[in-house]
Amino acid sequence: MAGRLEGKVAFITGGARGQGRAHALAMAKEGADIIVIDICRNIESNPYPLSTPDDLAEVEREVKALGRRVFARIADVRERHELRDALEAGVADMGKLDIVVANAGILPMAFGKEFDPMHFVDATDVDLLGVMNTVAVSLPHLPDGASVIITGSTAGMIKGTSDNPMMGPGGAGYGWSKRVLIDYVDHLCLQVAPKMIRVNAMHPTNVNTHLLHNDGIYSVFRPDMTAEGKKPTREDAEPAFAYFNAMPIPYVEPEDIANLAVFLASEESRYITGQHIRVDAGSMLKWPNGPGR
After folding, report:
1. Are 42 and 87 in a shared domain?
2. Residues 235, 239, 241, CA angle at the centre, nearest 5°?
3. Could you tell me if residue 183 is inside a domain?
4. Are 267 and 128 contained in the same domain?
5. What do you get for the CA distance between the two ends of the chain, in Å?
6. Which parts form a coiled-coil structure per UniProt (predicted)?
7. Which residues are bridge partners to 149 per DSSP?
8. What are the phi and psi torsion angles at 48 (to 5°)?
9. What's the CA gap between 13 and 29, in Å, rounded?
C-alpha cells in the first residue's frame, strides 16, 4: 500500500533535530523524498545550542534507512541567497518540489546575559524573515496543488507568555513574529489559492525539544525559585509546564506535530487552506487572557 505522500518531495527548514527532524522522518515514512536544511551552528543570543553538522548527517542517514532519497545542506534561513542556493540544488537533485515546511525557529532569551535589542532582531530574522525567505525561494518551484506548512506557536498567541518581561527582547521578538505569521498565512493563502496551493499553520504548545529544555525557560516557568536565588531544574519546571496545559501533560512530542504536518501535506487536506491548527493540549482555551488572569 502506497504511503500518503508517495511520489512527493518535501523541503524542511530547521530539519536537523527537534520538530524538523520529526517532520522529515514522518514524511519519509509516508513515501516522500526529503530536502532538509539547517544552520548547524549556534546563534550567540540563543540560550541553548543549535544543531550540528552531525545532527544533519544523522537525519540524512535516518531518511535513507527508510528507503527514501534525501538532500541535506547547511544553510541559514536568514540569508535568502543561501536558502535559494540550497533549495535549487535540492530540486535539481530531486526533480521537483511539492511540500514546504517552514519550521526553523529560535527563542533567543540570552539567559544569564544582559538583554540586548539585537536579541529581538535575531528572533525576528529567524522566526519571521526566515519563514518569508523559505516561502519566497519555494514558490517558483511549487506546482498546482502543493502544500505550504508554517510553524507558529500557541504561546505566541497567548498574552503574558513569550512577551513576559523575563524573556527580554528575544522573547518579545519571538512572540511578535509568531503573531505576524498568523496574518501572513491569512493573506498568502489567498494569493496562491488560484493555483490550488494551500497554506496552513501549526501552533504547538510546549514541545519536548531543546527550545523548551534550557535554564532560561525553566526560570520563566519557576520565577518563585529564581526569586529565591535557586536554579530550577527540568524536574522543577515540569509541573509548571503541565499547569500551562488543560490536559495534564507537561508537553507534546515532536511527533505529535509531525502527524499534523503529514495530514496537511497529503491529499487528504486538499481543500484545507488558511487554517491555524493548535496542537496545544487545550492551553489556549485555558488561558484566553494570559496565564494567571
Report:
1. yes
2. 100
3. yes
4. yes
5. 50
6. none
7. 101, 200
8. -135, 150
9. 18
Give the catalytic positions in this structure.
Answer: 174
Domain range enclosing 262: 9-212+253-277
Bridge partners, 230 (sequence order):
none
pLDDT in tens, 117-129: 999 999 999 999 9
Angle between the N-to-C axes of helices 18-29 and 53-65, in degrees from 0 to 180, rounded to the nearest 10? 20
Question: Does residue 292 lie in a domain region?
Answer: no
Q: Residue 1 pLDDT > 70, yes or no?
A: no
Same domain? 113 vs 223: no
Domain contains 4: no
pLDDT tens readout for residues 165-198: 888 999 999 999 999 999 999 999 999 999 999 9
Looking at the structure, tell me whether residues 34 and 121 fall in a common domain: yes
Same-domain check for residues 77 and 201:
yes
Tell whether 286 is covered by a domain.
no
- pTM across the whole model: 0.95
Q: How many CB atoms lie within 10 A of CB 79?
A: 16
In this structure, what CATH number is given to the domain that contains residue 131? 3.40.50.720
- What percentage of the chain exceeds 70 in pLDDT? 97
Nearest to 102, CA basis, from 198, 200, 194: 200
DSSP string for residues in the chain: ---TTTT-EEEEESTTSHHHHHHHHHHHHTT-EEEEEE--S--TT-SS----HHHHHHHHHHHHHTT--EEEEE--TT-HHHHHHHHHHHHHHHS---EEEE--------TTS---HHHHHHHHIIIIIHHHHHHHHHGGGPPTT-EEEEE--HHHHSTTSTT-GGGHHHHHHHHHHHHHHHHHHHHHHHHHGGGT-EEEEEEESSBSSTTTSSHHHHHHH-HHHHHTT----HHHHHHHHHHHSSSS-S-B-HHHHHHHHHHHHSGGGTT--S-EEEESTTHHHH-TT-TT-
Number of domains in the chain: 2
